[in-house]
Amino acid sequence: MMSRSIFLALWINLVLSGVARAHAFIDHADPAAGGKVQKSPKEVRIWFTEEIEPAFSSIKVLDGSGKQIDKGDTHADPVNRALLHLSLPPLKAGTYKVVWRVVSVDAHVTKGDFTFQVVR
Question: Whole domain around residue 74: which residue ranges?
Answer without folding.
Answer: 2-118
